[in-house]
Amino acid sequence: MTMDTHAPLSRPDARADAPARPELLVLSGLSHSYGGVRALHDIDLTIGDNEFFALLGPSGCGKTTLLRSIAGFETPESGTIALDGVDLVSTPAHKRPVNMMFQSYALFPHLSVERNVAYGLEAEGLGKAEVKRRVGEAIETVGLGAFARRRPSQLSGGQRQRVALARAIVKRPRLLLLDEPLSALDRKVRADMQLELKRLQHEVGMTFVVVTHDQEEAMSMADRVAVLDAGRVEQLDTPVGLYSNPRTRFVAEFIGSSSLFDGTATAGGVDVAGLAELPAAHTLPVGSAVTLVVRPEDIEVVAPGGAGLLEGVVIDTYFLGGSSTVSVAVPGREKPVGCTVHATSTARRGDTVGLRIDHARSVVVADTRPVSHGGTESA
Ligand SMILES: Nc1ncnc2c1ncn2[C@@H]1O[C@H](COP(=O)(O)OP(=O)(O)OP(=O)(O)O)[C@@H](O)[C@H]1O
């Protein structure tokens, strides 16, 4: 049997709930409701200067409400928002040093690219020469120099998105808010634009706060990510921290793939219902309901029969290029266990294999749901 030899991810030891840079935006105790619907519950967040920050969560978790509160399109029920130490809640939206890029891009269809980009500056009453220079710079920054005279209908989706970006950065806000900025683009263009957005943020030196429900997008672009669920911040961390050290079951399921083993905490690990006691380090009360979270690259597929191994039967292998995913049915578990192996793995469908979990890398989280039998697996 082949052994999986992935290098371990480093675990962050710095406090990830505080930005590495000087703070720019501080939200304290922010709550908001729409009629009887609680959209935000007591949110505390600090976002750093020149940081690429993502708000990530499933539909309805409150991401847009949070963004709109920062922009000034919603007035929070309680709590404070300060930018550079100055209160924003009492500052009207148009006076905040904040710009928002909408999902729809909201371009003027009858105006050329350069007129679209110039619009906001002209509305501010800037001189013609200044407008021309700044518009030219912004259009170059987003790589649309050759398209300045075209109208939005003569551009691709990715190019339209760049116009919206140019229009957002041309006013040089301290903070740029982007609501699902890539959702209108197809998969390939999206991947390119993720890199582009990151480059642009670095180049213009502004703080970006991006809202997305796509965890890959958030993880690939952002310096830090706040994972929201039902109006609360579940975890605020770096992408590596979220992946390697999820603090709740929700985060473990939402970020990346994992096999989740529900059970009861023991002194040295987790007693997985109907399966085995699996060793793991944790500080949760013995006897409490917990979930052991194991990433696919932290499971080694080996010959069966060794001590401390789970055993199962390979039900599928998926070749992914440099690696493969082996899906193993383990008796007593409803969902198969996914393992990442080297592409040269000899594991084949129908093989009985042993699974060695890297106990030093698995994570135990408190499970607030009733203990289920058979375990679950995230996508
Ligand atoms: N204008 C409104 N009136 C009433 N309820 C609203 C309003 N806007 C949002 N909500 C509710 O507030 C909650 C948070 O909505 P919000 O739009 O902030 O979530 P979201 O995470 O951005 O979702 P999505 O990803 O689907 O856009 C949801 O339950 C939503 O139904």
UniProtKB/TrEMBL annotation:
UniProt keyword annotations, A-Z: ATP-binding, Cell membrane, Membrane, Nucleotide-binding, Translocase, Transport
UniProt-listed Enzyme Commission number(s): 7.6.2.11
Enzymatic class: translocase
Domain ABC transporter intervals: 25-255
Catalysed reactions listed for this entry: ATP + H2O + polyamine-[polyamine-binding protein]Side 1 = ADP + phosphate + polyamineSide 2 + [polyamine-binding protein]Side 1
PROSITE patterns, sorted: ABC_TRANSPORTER_1, ABC_TRANSPORTER_2
Pfam families, sorted: ABC_tran, TOBE_2
One cellular-component annotation, GO: ATP-binding cassette (ABC) transporter complex
Keyword DNA repair among record annotations: no
Any one GO molecular-function label of the UniProt entry: ABC-type polyamine transporter activity
Family per record: Belongs to the ABC transporter superfamily. Spermidine/putrescine importer (TC 3.A.1.11.1) family.
Task performed by this protein: Part of the ABC transporter complex PotABCD involved in spermidine/putrescine import. Responsible for energy coupling to the transport system.
Subunit: The complex is composed of two ATP-binding proteins (PotA), two transmembrane proteins (PotB and PotC) and a solute-binding protein (PotD).
Protein name: Spermidine/putrescine import ATP-binding protein PotA
Lineage: Bacteria, Bacillati, Actinomycetota, Actinomycetes, Micrococcales
Gene that this polypeptide is encoded by: potA
